[in-house]
Give the backbone structure.
Amino acid sequence: MAGQQPDVEVFGHVIGGEEVTAGDGAHFDSVDPYTGTAWARLPLGGAAEADLAVAAARRAFDTGPWPRMGAAERRTILHRLADLVLENRELLALADTRDMGKPVTQSLTKDVPRTAENLRFFADHACLTPAEVYPSDTGHHAYTRYEPAGVVVAIAPWNFPLMLASWKIAPALAWGNTVVLKPAEDSPVSVTMLARLALEAGMPPGVLNVVHGYGPDSAGAALTAHPGVDRITFTGESSTGVAVARAAATHLTPVSLELGGKGANVVFADADLDQAVEWSVRAAFTNAGQVCLAGSRLYAHRSVVGEFTRRLCAAAERLVPGDPKDPGTLLGPLSSEAHHDKVTGYLDTVTAWGGSVETGGAGSGLFVRPTVITGLPKDAPHRTEEIFGPLVTVTPFDTEDEVVAEVNDSPYGLNAMLFTEDLSRAHRVAASLRVGTVWVNCFFVRDLRAPFGGVGRSGLGREGGTYSREFFTEPKAVVVRIGDDTDTGAGA
């Protein structure tokens, strides 16, 4: 544990509408990766706090008003929460920046507005999405109800702390569930602020709870194995996702897992290179490459690979590292010393694998400069493993079939990008890739109605729009006899 600092801010668990500390006084500090000093202190929760939070969420679900409200009433509260998020945008943005080094301009202009948008979208979606009615000629009326599932455990990652937490809790709350949210221990503050704002918005106590702690042998493990939980939604590293699924299986708790990625980026010979470079830089280096969707595995047609790589390196070199609290900074440090050691470990082995660093490399402190690597063989870990840092490998290809096979030859299948001016090729290749999302001539453009998730080690299930409704509800068939016909219709 870091020593007490005079300017350390103290936050608690939010359980049953109250902010509380750990019963045994245990705590941990959130360290600003730019300054290297602790700036926030959190209670270290475990099984006891998990039990308390699940019990509070269960009471709020079983006897409280939230699941019994109409969707429009819940929408009013969620919209009020979205308003409060925007009113407190500077505080929320700065919390994510201080927790994990994200440039504050990104936090302020992207993550916080998207958090509000998630809350509004799912609040509206729950009101506006129709349910099914099944025509019958047997004198019966059949229809579907979407009932809230119950208590939802949401485990959010550290790279987009506020935004990805809202992606999980917004649909769960909109459909009438209660939630226990466990943020990553590296980035716990903004969601604690969000839980405070939820109470201010009028959300009943126990509907949104926040428990702080670690994963194994701590709050995370206790929550995922808890018998009182009805749904688990997790975003994080693939091996952790396996552990979550294993724990949930004990009680047959349904899980939604958005896991790691090794996003492929394919630049065809006919691509607009200016556009391809601009989007490729965003895909590889946004958030210092700490993005599950990062386009870190780049393939360029042999006829353009030299020119494309030259332009990519020049664009990467314009991303100057700096203080993430400075509005002009586009590249912040990595989130922690341990993560920095992991990423630089890959840099240290490039030459041994026969590759060349065209630009970039390790910087001072916890910084890693935007790095472009060429010449690596197919089985190099830099090309096969999720690094989660600002490293991109560039590999030439000759044919469409060749590159499709290369992209699909991966245990990950979260997303891919392709750049081409050939409309037929765009549709043909998009259909051939075994991934959850394909972006054509763009990156990270989201429609919240569309399914989001991956295949293979990139996850299990889909969320977004009606896909979130399916996961966070228990669909119920209702059949009403309205005529005199005694025919019961088709049997089971």
